[in-house]
């Protein structure tokens, strides 16, 4: 019995999408996890993964088709050994997108067959194996089961798989993690005594996306040392004044604002590489890496360039808090035009972060520390931090990157600009 | 020249022999070493022979209550020797069964005391003193456990018994003290009470069967007291003197008073000690905690090639847990990736009268774990079949997570509940919610309908109450 491949809902709000590109063709053998197609929504281009294995028997929706409703059958998958030529040929109502069914039925099927029943899920529709509890938990947290790989018998999705997952299909995973997640994992277990820990869905996405980033995105790294004392002083002054309002700014809040301001100044770095095109954003949405149990997530401060530092601070607090409790909505962590990853609190002097595709830059913040510092040819002691920008060289040239670093440095060292 | 195997299993209890069979099924060349009886404690001195004893006690109880069923049975007496003889016969039959299973699966059996002599090396000393040297890349330690003894006078087998003496008693006790109210203690208390002894149970914690749900403990205590048992909770044995005619025991009661009494016999059932001291683990650096071998989810120890399962490892110390670990260990050795066991999916059964069976979290545990809970309780008095059987005692309690509908636990006390708990265990293993349990059609008339009703009750929908 052939399996229908339906337009997936790649986010809780997605109603339709464009079938941007087929990554398989008729006759291809696919297995669970293979990429079938790229689906574009208003927000992003996302990957459509195979859940079942089999042979692509028939592609019903050609690539480039826009406005394909969620649930529409886009292709048929045959089991191995099934006669694929018979599939999808002729008028098989169940193979057609829902809107067309009514017409077809009206003309070619005797009236005795109620239209409604044809529109019901056809027999052989791909079934997601999931425990009742897993289904309920997924529903409660708006998790799309078709995006989760089950760890139970025969790939059945069980509770632990949901516990490890993050809402919606494509969590924007933060970079800034040591790139230790090789995609090609040795399948032979070492003899050394060890315990096998099942990867959570988040962990899998982190591994996949960071590997993709390092393999596909040519990174360049630019490091600058920044004199931090003026910003620390400004922060202390502001916090004095803001204490009554219950606001306490962190250095990170100010750096988010500084990066946003720098990106507005140097728009050639607020971009995204998109195949034949380059997207230049006129707004800065900063993804801020937040460590959460089992991984990390990047809540977004949207329009950070236009927000005051107090607003950024309270928004950041709220998002980080909800991120740790797994309560972030997809739109709060998906997207972003650039990222900021701060490991200063861990005492890290300097590091190079992995770009979070499809973004084109990430700023890695090291610890502010007292260092010998030369001012007017005299040696003094100052608080200095090293920051390193990672840039997608396909989209951003070294000179543009250097301009951004210079702007960021200037803003941080003359921080009153932030309030302008 | 040493005999070489892929896997050697040390110990042939329900963990060891199942591990050996699974390894053999997976085409591993397997040997098993046993120092006493194939089948281990479970089959020879534990689960099975005690069930045979308890069955005799149950029939005896029915005979005494013949009148309730409109029947006449007069001059009923019990012949303890014959009851024990039947129990031993059952154990023998199963012991031979294991022997047959070893032969059928081509597993080499070495009778004798096994000791690790190095990495992958095991020496077996047979009862006649002969030794065999065995080697294997993987050795599974399944040596089990034995009864924990009291710090004061050790069990002598005459007046003071462990479970082992209690199931093969030299004589019928007339006044019996059972120290400890876990599964073993309470089963023997129930057996000897049914057989006509005057039984007292002393428990240090504030309730009997303390691992069970508190409601179950409360109900069982009332039921046992009604049957004539004396129960002392929150009480500890201070002193125990074995005399010529009996045992004088001083018990510090809950109120702090010291009470001395004489008993004809005492059963010590205060827990178990793992059999891990003489295996040679220390020389190889195998990590243990209070004697119990530390393992991971696949039953590996910290030393490569040494695996451990069952009572020799962490709790729960139950035969079926050992068997399941045996399967996990054998499959992992064969290169498969079995799922680690979830201890919350391991049911527990106690065969006292009335019986107890449970799986998952108790209400208290669930609340402590932060769950908002929904509780359903349904009594057997509301069940037609239980009334027809003349056994309307007990209840079924279910614990659900109020948010997700997850079945967190089920706790039953009453007739044949040990044969029904698997229903809830399947539910937990398959991760059902209350919806599927409610939609399941339970056969009428059965006592299992109480399980359905309990689920309905948790959501305010019970029918027959």
UniProtKB/TrEMBL annotation, chain A:
<keyword id="KW-0670">Pyruvate</keyword>
<keyword id="KW-0808">Transferase</keyword>
<dbReference type="Pfam" id="PF00198">
    <property type="entry name" value="2-oxoacid_dh"/>
</dbReference>
<dbReference type="GO" id="GO:0006086">
    <property type="term" value="P:pyruvate decarboxylation to acetyl-CoA"/>
</dbReference>
<dbReference type="InterPro" id="IPR003016">
    <property type="entry name" value="2-oxoA_DH_lipoyl-BS"/>
</dbReference>
<comment type="subunit">
    <text>Forms a 24-polypeptide structural core with octahedral symmetry.</text>
</comment>
<dbReference type="InterPro" id="IPR045257">
    <property type="entry name" value="E2/Pdx1"/>
</dbReference>
<comment type="similarity">
    <text>Belongs to the 2-oxoacid dehydrogenase family.</text>
</comment>
<dbReference type="InterPro" id="IPR011053">
    <property type="entry name" value="Single_hybrid_motif"/>
</dbReference>
<dbReference type="InterPro" id="IPR023213">
    <property type="entry name" value="CAT-like_dom_sf"/>
</dbReference>
<dbReference type="Pfam" id="PF02817">
    <property type="entry name" value="E3_binding"/>
</dbReference>
<dbReference type="InterPro" id="IPR006257">
    <property type="entry name" value="LAT1"/>
</dbReference>
<dbReference type="InterPro" id="IPR004167">
    <property type="entry name" value="PSBD"/>
</dbReference>
<protein>
    <recommendedName>
        <fullName>Acetyltransferase component of pyruvate dehydrogenase complex</fullName>
        <ecNumber>2.3.1.12</ecNumber>
    </recommendedName>
</protein>
<dbReference type="Pfam" id="PF00364">
    <property type="entry name" value="Biotin_lipoyl"/>
</dbReference>
<dbReference type="GO" id="GO:0004742">
    <property type="term" value="F:dihydrolipoyllysine-residue acetyltransferase activity"/>
</dbReference>
<dbReference type="InterPro" id="IPR036625">
    <property type="entry name" value="E3-bd_dom_sf"/>
</dbReference>
<keyword id="KW-0012">Acyltransferase</keyword>
<dbReference type="InterPro" id="IPR000089">
    <property type="entry name" value="Biotin_lipoyl"/>
</dbReference>
<dbReference type="InterPro" id="IPR001078">
    <property type="entry name" value="2-oxoacid_DH_actylTfrase"/>
</dbReference>
<dbReference type="GO" id="GO:0045254">
    <property type="term" value="C:pyruvate dehydrogenase complex"/>
</dbReference>
<comment type="function">
    <text>The pyruvate dehydrogenase complex catalyzes the overall conversion of pyruvate to acetyl-CoA and CO(2). It contains multiple copies of three enzymatic components: pyruvate dehydrogenase (E1), dihydrolipoamide acetyltransferase (E2) and lipoamide dehydrogenase (E3).</text>
</comment>
TrEMBL record, chain B:
<feature type="binding site">
    <location>
        <position position="311"/>
    </location>
    <ligand>
        <name>FAD</name>
    </ligand>
</feature>
<dbReference type="InterPro" id="IPR012999">
    <property type="entry name" value="Pyr_OxRdtase_I_AS"/>
</dbReference>
<comment type="similarity">
    <text>Belongs to the class-I pyridine nucleotide-disulfide oxidoreductase family.</text>
</comment>
<feature type="binding site">
    <location>
        <position position="51"/>
    </location>
    <ligand>
        <name>FAD</name>
    </ligand>
</feature>
<protein>
    <recommendedName>
        <fullName>Dihydrolipoyl dehydrogenase</fullName>
        <ecNumber>1.8.1.4</ecNumber>
    </recommendedName>
</protein>
<dbReference type="InterPro" id="IPR004099">
    <property type="entry name" value="Pyr_nucl-diS_OxRdtase_dimer"/>
</dbReference>
<keyword id="KW-0285">Flavoprotein</keyword>
<dbReference type="InterPro" id="IPR001100">
    <property type="entry name" value="Pyr_nuc-diS_OxRdtase"/>
</dbReference>
<feature type="binding site">
    <location>
        <position position="271"/>
    </location>
    <ligand>
        <name>NAD(+)</name>
    </ligand>
</feature>
<dbReference type="InterPro" id="IPR036188">
    <property type="entry name" value="FAD/NAD-bd_sf"/>
</dbReference>
<dbReference type="GO" id="GO:0005737">
    <property type="term" value="C:cytoplasm"/>
</dbReference>
<dbReference type="GO" id="GO:0004148">
    <property type="term" value="F:dihydrolipoyl dehydrogenase (NADH) activity"/>
</dbReference>
<feature type="disulfide bond" description="Redox-active">
    <location>
        <begin position="42"/>
        <end position="47"/>
    </location>
</feature>
<dbReference type="InterPro" id="IPR050151">
    <property type="entry name" value="Class-I_Pyr_Nuc-Dis_Oxidored"/>
</dbReference>
<dbReference type="Pfam" id="PF02852">
    <property type="entry name" value="Pyr_redox_dim"/>
</dbReference>
<keyword id="KW-0547">Nucleotide-binding</keyword>
<dbReference type="GO" id="GO:0006103">
    <property type="term" value="P:2-oxoglutarate metabolic process"/>
</dbReference>
<dbReference type="InterPro" id="IPR023753">
    <property type="entry name" value="FAD/NAD-binding_dom"/>
</dbReference>
<keyword id="KW-0963">Cytoplasm</keyword>
<feature type="domain" description="Pyridine nucleotide-disulphide oxidoreductase dimerisation">
    <location>
        <begin position="346"/>
        <end position="454"/>
    </location>
</feature>
<feature type="binding site">
    <location>
        <position position="114"/>
    </location>
    <ligand>
        <name>FAD</name>
    </ligand>
</feature>
<dbReference type="InterPro" id="IPR006258">
    <property type="entry name" value="Lipoamide_DH"/>
</dbReference>
């Amino acid at each position: 019995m052939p399996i229908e491949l339906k337009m997936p809902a790649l986010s809780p709000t997605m109603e339709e999408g464009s079938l941007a590109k087929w990554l398989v063709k008729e006759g291809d053998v696919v297995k669970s996890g293979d990429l079938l197609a790229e689906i574009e929504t208003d927000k992003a281009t996302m990957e459509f993964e195979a859940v079942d294995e089999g042979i692509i028997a028939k592609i019903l929706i050609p690539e480039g088709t826009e406005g394909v409703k969620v649930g529409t059958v886009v292709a048929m998958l045959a089991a191995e050994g099934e006669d694929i030529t018979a599939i999808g040929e002729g008028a098989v109502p169940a193979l057609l997108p829902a809107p067309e069914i009514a017409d077809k039925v009206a003309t070619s099927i005797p009236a005795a067959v109620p239209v409604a029943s044809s529109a019901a899920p056809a027999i052989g529709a791909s079934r997601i194996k999931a425990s009742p509890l897993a289904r309920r938990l997924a529903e409660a947290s708006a998790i799309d089961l078709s995006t989760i790989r089950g760890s139970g018998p025969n790939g059945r999705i069980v509770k632990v798989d949901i516990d490890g997952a993050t809402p919606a299909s494509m969590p924007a995973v933060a970079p800034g993690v040591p790139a230790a997640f090789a995609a090609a994992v040795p399948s032979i277990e070492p003899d050394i005594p060890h315990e096998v820990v099942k990867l959570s869905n988040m962990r899998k996405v982190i591994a996949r996306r960071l590997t993709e980033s390092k393999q596909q995105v040519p990174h360049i790294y630019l490091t600058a040392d920044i004199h931090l004392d003026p910003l620390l002083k400004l922060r202390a002054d502001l916090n004095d004044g803001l204490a009554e309002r219950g606001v306490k700014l962190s250095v990170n809040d100010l750096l988010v604002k500084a990066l946003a301001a720098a990106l507005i100044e140097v728009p050639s770095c607020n971009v995204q590489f998109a195949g034949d095109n380059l997207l230049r954003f006129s707004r800065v949405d900063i993804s801020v890496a937040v460590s959460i149990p089992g991984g990390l997530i990047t809540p977004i401060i949207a329009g950070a360039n236009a927000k005051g530092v107090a607003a950024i601070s309270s928004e950041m607090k709220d998002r980080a808090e909800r991120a740790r409790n797994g309560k972030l909505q997809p739109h709060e962590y998906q997207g972003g035009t650039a990222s900021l990853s701060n490991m200063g609190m861990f005492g890290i002097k300097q590091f190079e972060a992995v770009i979070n595709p499809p973004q084109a830059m990430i700023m890695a913040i090291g610890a502010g520390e007292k260092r010998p510092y030369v001012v007017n040819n005299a040696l003094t002691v100052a608080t200095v931090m090293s920051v390193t920008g990672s840039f997608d060289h396909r989209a951003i040239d070294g000179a543009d990157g250097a301009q951004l670093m210079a702007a960021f440095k200037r803003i941080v060292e003359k921080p009153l600009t932030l309030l302008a | 020249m040493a005999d070489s195997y892929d896997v050697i299993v040390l110990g042939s209890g329900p963990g060891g022999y199942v591990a050996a069979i699974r390894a053999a099924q997976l085409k591993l060349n397997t040997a098993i070493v046993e120092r006493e009886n194939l089948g281990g404690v479970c089959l020879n001195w534990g689960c099975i022979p005690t069930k045979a004893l308890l069955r005799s006690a149950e029939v005896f109880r029915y005979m005494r209550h013949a009148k309730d069923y409109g029947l006449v049975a007069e001059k009923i007496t019990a012949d303890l020797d014959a009851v024990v003889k039947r129990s031993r016969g059952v154990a023998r039959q199963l012991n031979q069964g294991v022997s047959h299973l070893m032969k059928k699966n081509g597993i080499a059996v070495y009778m004798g005391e096994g000791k690790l002599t190095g990495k992958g090396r095991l020496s077996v000393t047979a009862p006649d003193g002969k030794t065999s040297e065995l080697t294997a890349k993987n050795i599974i330690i399944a040596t089990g456990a034995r009864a924990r003894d009291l710090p004061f006078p050790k069990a002598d087998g005459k007046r003071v018994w462990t479970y082992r003496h209690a199931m093969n008693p030299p004589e019928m006790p007339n006044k019996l003290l059972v120290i400890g109210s876990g599964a073993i203690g309470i089963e023997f208390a129930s057996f000897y009470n049914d057989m006509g002894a005057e039984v007292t149970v002393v428990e240090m914690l504030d309730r009997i069967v303390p691992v069970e749900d508190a409601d179950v403990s409360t109900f069982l205590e009332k039921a046992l007291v009604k049957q004539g048992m004396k129960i002392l909770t929150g009480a500890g044995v201070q002193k125990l003197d074995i005399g010529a005619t009996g045992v004088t025991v001083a018990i510090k009661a809950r109120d702090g008073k010291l009470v001395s009494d004489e008993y004809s016999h005492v059963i010590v059932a205060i827990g178990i000690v793992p059999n891990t001291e003489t295996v040679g683990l220390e020389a190889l650096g195998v990590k243990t905690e209070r004697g119990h071998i530390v393992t991971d989810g696949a039953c590996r120890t910290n030393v490569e090639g040494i695996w451990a399962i069952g009572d020799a490892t962490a709790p729960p110390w139950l035969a079926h847990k050992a068997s399941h670990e045996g399967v996990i260990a054998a499959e992992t050795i064969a290169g498969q990736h079995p799922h680690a066991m979830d201890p919350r999916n391991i049911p527990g059964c106690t065969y006292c009268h009335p019986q107890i069976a449970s799986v998952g979290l108790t209400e208290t545990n669930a609340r402590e774990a932060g769950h908002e809970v929904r509780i359903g309780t349904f009594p057997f008095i509301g069940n037609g079949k239980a009334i027809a059987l003349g056994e309307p005692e007990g209840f079924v309690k279910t614990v659900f997570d109020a948010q997700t509908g997850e079945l967190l636990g089920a706790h039953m006390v009453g007739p044949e509940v040990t044969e029904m708990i698997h229903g809830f265990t399947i539910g937990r293993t398959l991760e059902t919610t209350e919806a599927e349990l409610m939609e399941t059609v339970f056969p009428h008339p059965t006592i299992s309908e109480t399980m359905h009703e309990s689920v309905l009750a948790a959501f305010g929908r019970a029918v027959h109450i």
